[in-house]
Design goal:
The chain has about 325 residues and is mainly α. The chain has helices spanning about 15-30, 40-60, 65-90, 95, 105, 115-120, 130-145, 150-155, 160-175, 185-200, 205-220, 235-245, 255-265, 270-285, 295-320, 325-330, and strands spanning about 5, 10-15, 245-250.
Length: about 325
């Protein structure tokens, strides 16, 4: 379903988080094809993942629909993830399949193993680190909320307390603990971004969100995952825009069409991220690793198109699943 909301005449509104998700995935594609060098863009996606988890899923868990959240995670994220990593696993050859590094991705452990183990993996597996950590965060958070009624009551009473405590705990760990990016440090730093997005959504009112954003900005600037990271380039301006202007309005035929494209890219962003490995690998095999500008731009467009095609196929599967009774009656009328 599109995230663009039609209004009177040639006018459409678009949630700002949807626009930011679209910008983030396009910049990630450009980074991987060396068109840009804007680091930590994946972390903007993780902040938005926390924001949208609080916006759409926490309420479902509180209403007793946690199993539905987990079912959707399995059907529309976990299953496509495994289908995506199957070809690079098989292409790695029997000698790699017989070694223990290959199952690292299959058990969602890429973000928890040392660099030496990561280096032993087939190259394509490195593209999927974000998907793995996203699955872990949604899975663990949902299971914990389902298991502990006091946490659910706390969220119902003061929605901002739990994500605020988790953000503070992650920040304290990063300030006081070790900084081995290859293992725990990287996972906690990514979790910190997830909790920051959750907190921004949970807080009531613009003033409280601006105060929290000021603290988050200080944290992100002081605790960079890498010295080359610049959260002030994209993440912090994007979150400020999200806080001050939660909805963007587009007027006129071309802006409305652009908003529809932005919404489509955002809706397909997870599958664009999953599918980029295949497009990038094909380009590198055809043209070498030193791509010219036209090949880089074509790569970005092809990645977006591939991800949208996956989203469309999954949407069709969802409709067929929803209409399975009607399809059974149509094709098997006597059963």
């Amino acid at each position: 379903a599109s995230n663009v909301t039609p209004d009177a005449g040639a006018r459409r509104s678009l949630p700002t988080d949807v626009a930011l998700r679209s910008v983030a995935i396009v910049v990630i594609l450009m980074n991987h094809l060396e068109l840009t060098r804007i680091f930590e863009t994946s972390m903007l996606l993780m902040v938005l993942a926390g924001y949208n988890y609080a916006r759409f899923q926490v309420g479902n868990v509180l209403k007793g629909h946690g199993t539905e959240v987990l079912r959707n995670l399995f059907l529309w994220v976990v299953v496509p993830f495994y289908l995506m990593i199957l070809p690079p696993t098989l292409a790695s050859g029997p000698e790699r399949l017989s070694g223990w590094p290959v199952p690292v991705n299959w058990f969602l452990m890429y973000n928890f193993v040392p660099d030496a183990v990561r280096d032993a993996l087939p190259y394509g597996m490195r593209f999927f680190w974000f998907i793995e950590v996203y699955i872990w965060f949604i899975l663990v958070t949902t299971l914990v909320l389902m298991a502990f009624a006091p946490l659910r009551r706390l969220i119902a009473w003061r929605p901002e307390v739990l994500p605020g405590v988790l953000l503070a705990a992650a920040t304290a760990y990063l300030a006081l603990g070790g900084k081995d990016y290859g293992t725990t440090f990287g996972v906690i730093a990514v979790a910190q971004r997830f909790f920051a997005g959750w907190l921004l959504l949970a807080l009531p009112g613009v003033k409280s969100r601006l105060a929290a954003l000021a603290a988050i900005a200080a944290i992100f600037l002081l605790q960079r995952m890498d010295p080359a990271d610049h959260p002030e380039w994209l993440i912090l301006p994007g979150l400020l825009l999200l806080t001050l202007m939660p909805t963007l309005t587009f007027r006129g035929r071309l802006p409305v069409a652009f908003a529809a494209l932005v919404a489509t890219i955002a809706t397909s962003s997870l599958y664009i991220y999953m599918g980029q490995f295949y497009v990038d690998t094909a380009l590198w095999k055809l043209f070498g690793t030193d791509l010219n500008l036209h090949s880089q731009i074509a790569g970005v467009v092809l990645c977006i198109g591939f991800g949208i095609a996956i989203q469309m196929a999954l949407d069709l599967a969802k409709r067929m699943w929803a209409d399975r009774s009607a399809l059974r009656a149509r094709f098997f009328p006597n059963r």
